[in-house]
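Example (one chain per record):
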Amino acid sequence: MGDWTGKDLLAHMAWWHDHSLRVIEGLRAGRQPYDATDPANSTDAFNERTHREHMDDPPELTRRTFNDSFSRLLTALEPVTNEELFADDRWPWLDGEALVETILWDSSRHYEEHRDQLEPLSR
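Predicted structure:
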């Protein structure tokens, strides 16, 4: 990630917003969102694939995609109940973690993780 541009980082963050969306929709539909044991579904694999697939996207598209992904995430959260969001035993696929943890790591905690890379973009 050291050589990623601001645009690359926004594409990365948009993908993780959509990851939460897929997890929410899959769990609420009673299915496993994806096979977490498949090496192609590791965090590093997701990040590398997303970078490769969006490397040539124009900046305007990447900004729009980021904004749209966050809007989709907020919309997906609207029908989620407190029990679905906060109970750490609600979703076996999450291995004892509350759904809110996935959402936080895919959004606000993720922003904090990349703060040093994101701050220059706000200037």
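Caption: The helical segments are 6-28, 43-54, 59-77, 82-86, 99-106, 108-113, 115-118.
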